[in-house]
Design the sequence.
């Protein structure tokens, strides 16, 4: 695998001080997790463990003010109303912004997220992301999605 896009390159180990998921494989079944150990200050809302395919659009500044973009396949591993975790085999950098596109049947709106944490898991990278610039109607759609999934899990 190549060097991460964006960032300075050494983020995958330095950023992995605390796991984003609270244990177990996020790719199996529907689970809910309230704040993980030691994360009580940081997480205030329920997280859903999911496995939903997605496409990430990644845009890089090029010289002379132009953008260059590409799409990368991945999976949504978990989701809350403030953030999410995605997995991909493609290396990315801290503080990068990605646009997440979900399959229509997922009922999730497209979202913009900033990568705030990176962990290497075998051949894949898990990215802890904070949602960014989510319009009010999409936030409501996201909150309703989470509520419905939590109800179904009970």
Sequence:
């Amino acid at each position: 695998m190549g060097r991460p896009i964006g960032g300075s390159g050494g983020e995958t180990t330095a950023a992995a001080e605390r796991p984003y998921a609270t244990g177990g494989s996020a790719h199996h079944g529907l689970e809910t997790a309230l704040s993980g150990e030691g994360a009580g200050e940081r997480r205030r809302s329920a997280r859903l463990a999911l496995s939903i395919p997605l496409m990430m659009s990644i845009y890089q500044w090029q010289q002379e003010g132009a953008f260059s973009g590409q799409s990368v396949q991945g999976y949504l591993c978990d989701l809350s109303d403030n953030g999410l975790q995605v997995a991909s085999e493609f290396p990315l950098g801290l503080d990068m912004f990605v646009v997440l596109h979900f399959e229509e049947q997922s009922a999730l709106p497209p979202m913009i997220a900033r990568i705030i944490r990176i962990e290497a898991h075998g051949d894949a990278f898990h990215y802890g992301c904070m949602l960014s610039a989510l319009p009010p109607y999409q936030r409501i759609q996201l909150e309703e999605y989470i509520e419905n999934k939590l109800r179904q899990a009970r």
Observations:
- The radius of gyration is 15 Å.
- Residues 1-41 have pLDDT under 50 and may be disordered.
- Helices lie at 11-14, 136-153.
- Strands lie at 31-33, 47-61, 67-79, 83-88, 97-102, 111-121, 124-132.
